[in-house]
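Minutes, project check-in

Agenda point 3 was the complex the collaborators sent over. CS summarized: two entities, 454 residues total, and the question is how they sit relative to each other. Sequences were read into the notes so everyone works from the same version.
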Amino acid sequence: MFEISPTEWTAILLSLRVAIIATLVATPFGIALAWALARHDFWGKSVLDAAVHLPLVLPPVVTGYLLLLTFGRRGLVGGFLADYLGIVFAFRWTGAALACGVMSFPLLVRPIRLSIEAIDRRLEQAAETLGAAPWRVFFTVTLPLALPGVLAGMVLGFAKAIGEFGATITFVSNIPGETQTISSAIYSLIQTPDGDAAAGRLVIISVIIAMGALIGSEWFARRATQRLHGN
Amino acid sequence: MLRVDVKKQLGEFQLSASFTSQGRVTGLFGASGSGKTSLINTIAGLLRPDRGTIEIDGETVDDTAAGIHIPTFRRRIGYVFQDARLFPHLDVRQNLDYGRRMNGLVDDPAQRRRIVELLDIGNLLDRRPGKLSGGERQRVALGRALLARPRLLLLDEPLGALDEGRKLEILPYLVRLRDEAGIPMVYVSHDAAELRQLATQIVMLRRGEVTAFGGVKVLTATP
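CS then shared the predicted structure for the full assembly.
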């Protein structure tokens, strides 16, 4: 019963690839944004903050449709990227990664922001008195101290990305081998007369991946916290 | 030499201080709320004066009329805070080395050994700040500031968070520092006895203004 077919393997590997790429690419942006929101007051901050959280509250199909309008081949950004840089998102796995990245972004940013807000700013001042320019203060004090939050954000983002369904299927459809992730494969299988067994296998695998991510993050967070407090 | 002539409004509080000190240790003396910490933070560049000038060792680091405000990290100062503020994610050795790395100074093992010996922190090098006592932390903070090779060392009540016994444990190190390290210091305290032992010149502050300036004798005028 537990023999995974090549199609299922393809969906599993694609899901992993999409979620990993989405998380890795989104993380630097997430850190930069979390830092800006935690440490700076600027014009339009509350609007930006709301915009980041939008994918959390919008119906995923709306986010997917907006992505299609923006990054589709005839979209404003998508057309430019395709014509001048040869980057295409529509109906490609890269589009799935983009959709997952956008959908998981609020979950990625939040823990990072909280951990930056929790850092004692007087430590950053101390670094400055020791001759560290602002960007070096960030990389030698702020970022290392925020590391548990960064890891927690990455794991949450990854978990969200690997389970993403609505925005992905709206934006890049459900093409086996290209954009069919575990979620969309399960969706297809349960609509097929004898797809139950295969769907069941994929369900078990997604539970294993999710559990692994949660246990892994717990472990990382504990390690990082110990490191920071020197115990 | 340190030349200060600044005005700064902080809410209701007005800081207005002017003095020139040639002393090895300039003591800023006053009750809490007299503006000592605001003044030392202004010298450090952490606060920007509304008006006035600050000159350290012949270099103008603040001149509001000329639009000069050298940021803290370029002032080549050392700052020892009341709460040591060691970096919790680095061990003592890395904390001590931080200023040298940030200033791009060449490694000088002889100087490091001298300061580690002067402060008696050789047995702490592999520990994390979380595993140090208050007095040990403050000694490491002193070493960290010194190893950045500052031209002026600022100390804001470095003994303030310690009990009497610990104070007596650190004070001799500060005296040795004054006599051996050759770095001019600005020392903030509300403890006249402490300043009598350490300072060579006193700036007395009251409600944001300098009320007396001179040798340690000016301290005897206060109860």
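Noted in discussion: Chain B has a mean pLDDT of 91.
Follow-up: revisit at the next meeting once the mutant set is ready.
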